[in-house]
Design a protein that fits this description.
The complex is a heterodimer of chains A (388) and B (142).
Chain A (H helix, E strand, L loop, with lengths): L5 E8 L10 H16 L8 E4 L10 H7 L6 E3 L7 H14 L6 E7 L1 H5 L18 H5 L4 H16 L3 H15 L13 H6 L2 E4 L1 E2 L9 E9 H4 L7 E10 L15 H12 L8 E4 L4 H11 L7 H6 L16 H5 L6 H12 L13 E8 L4 E8 L4
Parallel strand pairs in A: 2-3, 2-4, 9-10
Antiparallel strand pairs in A: 1-7, 1-8, 4-7, 5-6, 8-11, 10-11
Helix pairs in contact in A: 7-11, 10-11
Chain B lengths: L7 E3 L11 H8 L4 E5 L5 E2 L13 E5 L3 E10 L13 E7 L5 E6 L12 E9 L2 E11 L1
Parallel strand pairs in B: 1-8
Antiparallel strand pairs in B: 2-3, 2-4, 5-6, 5-8, 6-7, 8-9
Chain lengths: 388, 142
């Protein structure tokens, strides 16, 4: 049993969704200081750092980022699993604090994808400048990021009769929450018909099945429960956290209608001692509508193949039985390249009662599920505001 | 090198070849589709790694029959990058081979609307516009 308990005491977001005054690491730096201020701590308290970037330039690796952020950490973690990186990092960050490798860890991320690159995520070939290595085959045949997820959507439709209308319900729900988030990129409500009328990008996925592209960054602060008792904030406990990887490039995906999520979920739910029925609010990586559907099935909120009917009744939206992505998610609020830290931050806000109009009343247990790569690396983190 | 007139021509980025993949592309120039087979445990794999990912054993090249069925696919309607930007719509598909491996590819020689999961397909070979000495497998309706 751990002599020390690690808890989340700070969460912060940088300026988003468009911030041309910030570089990618600048977002991380701003978010870190906001998270430290939220916690009532300072940069001098930080002796552990987890971070990766996604820009393909200088600040992708953990030590370049740590240096830009002005940190001199004793513990570092640069685990890169794409959008799920923070959900993979957090278990080790908690363990590092609990075993005394460090006292206070920051997990930080930043991206200037919108302002710097002006890219629509997934609209180009996979790894356009690198036609070797594991992405050789995707780049050679013009596979796109959207196309990778579209192949999974197509297979799910083939095996289970899932429909475009059912996938569209996931976007409709996310817009209900985005309308309450003044920073969200896409706040106008949409209907199923609007999604089905949007531009076909990679059949069967349409523009409104795909995430927005934004700038943005986020940071979390983790320290000991003992230290947290001296701080003004209510701590959030990491009740369960686990990850599982099935492949990296989509051409090696073992089964196009399921993912490694059941493996990660089994472990995370087991650690937390809860079941899906005990989760009050979920933040699920919504790079594309199909991503949410596959995660809901893999996490056990519904059975395999049942995702379509499960989401079609609006239960993911405002006032629904399973509120999902209560900041508007990647589909409607922000997607700065990799969004895993935003999932954890929104879960923390819900558990602190800070989610404003999108607050799920009395939320005690929240789940964040990151899906990195091409439905490849699934990280599941269960948070609670109740001391175990 | 003598060019087989039967080859299609296709505009694709030039692949970076690795020690493990060079023979795969050389065989395409001969009109042969190769997959790797482990000499120790018999497992087959694609893409090539030069060593068996199941047991670490040595692999040998096995010529595939060139038949397959569509496991899943997408029709790409939007790609902002060359050389694909002017080629939409095009089909990206995963092909199940009877030899037991699955392969990412393009399906050519039919309209994208004609492609379906389960459709039988046959391999064809296409020389790259940027370097006709580099030939890659593509697939056509059987």
């Amino acid at each position: 049993m751990a002599a020390r308990t690690a808890v989340i005491v700070g969460a912060g977001l940088s300026d988003y969704p468009r911030a041309p005054h910030l570089s990618a690491p600048g977002h991380a730096l701003q978010a870190m200081h906001r998270a430290l201020a939220d916690a009532g701590l300072s940069v001098a308290d930080v002796d552990g750092f987890c971070g990766v970037g996604t820009q393909g330039f200088y600040y992708d690796d953990v030590l370049s980022l740590a240096e830009f952020l002005g940190l001199k950490p004793r513990y570092v973690n640069g685990t890169m699993t794409g959008g799920s990186s923070p959900e993979f990092m957090i278990r080790d960050a908690v363990a590092a604090v609990e075993r005394g490798a460090c006292e206070t860890v920051v997990i930080a991320y930043g991206s200037d994808l919108l302002s710097n690159k002006n890219l629509f995520l997934g609209s180009g070939s996979i790894r356009k400048n690198r036609h070797g290595g594991v992405f050789l085959w995707d780049s050679l045949y013009g596979q796109t990021i959207i196309g990778a997820y579209a192949m999974a959507a197509r297979r799910h439709m083939h095996e289970f009769g899932t429909t475009p209308e059912q996938l569209a319900a996931i976007t409709v729900a996310s817009r209900q929450f985005a309308a309450m988030n003044p920073n969200a990129m896409a706040r106008k409500p949409v209907t199923i018909e609007d999604v089905l009328a949007s531009r076909l990008l990679a059949d069967p996925l349409r523009a409104l099945d795909c995430c927005v592209v934004s700038d943005g960054g986020g940071a979390l602060v983790i320290t000991t429960l003992e230290r947290a008792r001296d701080l003004a904030v209510k701590p959030v406990f990491v009740a369960g956290s686990a990850g599982a990887v099935s492949h990296w490039g989509v051409n090696q995906m073992p089964d196009f209608s399921t993912t490694a999520a059941p493996i990660a979920a089994l472990e995370a739910f087991g650690q937390a001692g809860v079941t899906p029925a005990g989760v009050d609010v979920v933040q699920i990586y919504d790079s594309f509508t199909i991503t949410v559907l596959l995660m809901l099935e893999g996490l056990g909120f519904c059975g395999r193949g049942e995702g379509g009917p499960f989401v079609a009744d609006g239960k993911l939206g405002l006032g629904g039985a399973l509120p999902c992505n209560t900041d508007g998610g990647a589909l409607s609020s922000s997607h700065p390249g990799m969004r895993g830290v935003f999932l954890l931050i929104e879960a923390v806000r819900q558990l602190r009662g800070q989610a404003g109009d999108a607050q799920v009343p009395g939320a005690r247990t929240a789940l964040a599920c990151g899906a990195g790569g091409f439905l490849s690396a699934i990280g599941v983190t269960i948070l609670t505001n109740q001391q175990p | 090198m003598k060019q087989d007139p039967a080859f299609l021509t296709i505009d694709r980025p030039l692949p970076e070849l690795a020690p493990e993949t060079a023979e795969f592309f050389r065989a395409c120039l001969r009109g042969e589709l190769l997959i790797e087979e482990c000499t120790a445990c018999g497992a087959r794999q694609h893409y090539p790694r030069g060593q068996c990912i199941r047991c670490g054993g040595e692999t040998r090249w096995k010529r595939a029959r060139g038949e397959g069925t569509v496991h899943t696919f997408t029709v790409i309607h939007f790609n902002v990058q060359e050389p694909f930007v002017s080629q939409t719509p095009y089909v990206v598909a995963m092909i199940d081979l009877p030899e037991g491996v699955r392969m990412l590819t393009n399906i050519v020689g039919c309209s994208p609307e004609a492609v379906q999961i389960g459709m039988p397909v046959r391999v064809a070979f296409a020389a790259l516009k940027a370097d006709p000495a580099i030939v890659i497998p593509v697939w056509k309706p059987a």
